[in-house]
Amino acid sequence: MPLLTQNQRIERVNSTSELFSTNPQLKESAKQFVSRSPEAVDTKQLLYVQQREFAATTPADNSVSILGSDDATTCHLVVLSHTGSGATCLAHCDGSSTWTEVPLIVNAVTSRSSPAKEGRLELHLVGGFDDDKRTSHSLSLSILAAFQKQKEEIHLETCCITDMNDIIKDGIHRPVVYGIGVNVKTGHVFPASFTCRGPAEELRSARTFSGGQMVEVYDSSRELVKIDPCRWTPNNDMSFWLSQDDETILQYLSTSPHAEPPHFVHHIKSTIQFLLDHPTADGLFPGGQPHLYRRAEDGRWKRA
Fold this sequence. Notes:
Layout: E1 3-5, E2 8-9, H1 16-22, H2 24-34, E3 39-40, E4 46-48, E5 53-57, E6 66-69, E7 76-82, E8 88-93, H3 98-110, E9 121-127, H4 135-148, E10 154-161, E11 166-169, E12 172-175, E13 180-183, E14 189-193, H5 201-209, E15 215-216, E16 218-219, E17 224-227, H6 239-242, H7 246-253, H8 264-277, E18 291-295, E19 301-303
Parallel strand pairs: 1-10, 3-14, 4-6, 5-15, 9-10
Antiparallel strand pairs: 1-2, 5-8, 6-13, 7-8, 7-9, 11-12, 13-14, 16-17, 17-18, 18-19
């Protein structure tokens, strides 16, 4: 089925600039989106989604009101929801396997939506910027093409990507919006900032850093964050990076060294230290059991 905007089919395009020139309403809504200031999200309502993760739930969830993610430079943040059921999924895509990730996102929403519920699938895309290597541009086109290949009819509501999410500061291109949230009770999507990226932030980062593929991190039926067993091999050579200056780490370990948020280097170093402290993941998952986290009375996620 086609990807639609204002009930009109979006044809395949060769560039994001072509997309916006042929669909001016998408350009206008993107302008409005980037003009909004990021909202600080209350940790007690939040389920944070890291890179190469997705999470989905419904308005009936008593533990999660907001799905959110940030630190997206060339990465794209994808929100898909069903207007009838309210089922909503947020994913943080980095281009590692877009064609297999998009069907996971679609299934996460359709599997939580009763066929009897009238409504439609609505898509919101935010992320990327006008980077020198055109990494953002390639990812934008891949995500659009992947959604166009789905059998479901999907309506593109927000498309704040690449050139429409770009600003030049001190002669350097950067994203305007680095993070978003979606209110799963109302469907409202907004620019957002976060002070907490847990639970198990370092473990989840280590899984991605060591090559893990897109995974679902939330069991909405039990309202549990679920970190399944993962694997990585020892690599003592990584210790080399801990002694390097910020500029070197940015140059070699980032797709967009001049556009990363201020905490990027600290995040990379803490992830590497975690991998050095845990040369394999075997001891982290006794008996091959996942880590489960439940929302506690104080609003924090705690081991179940």
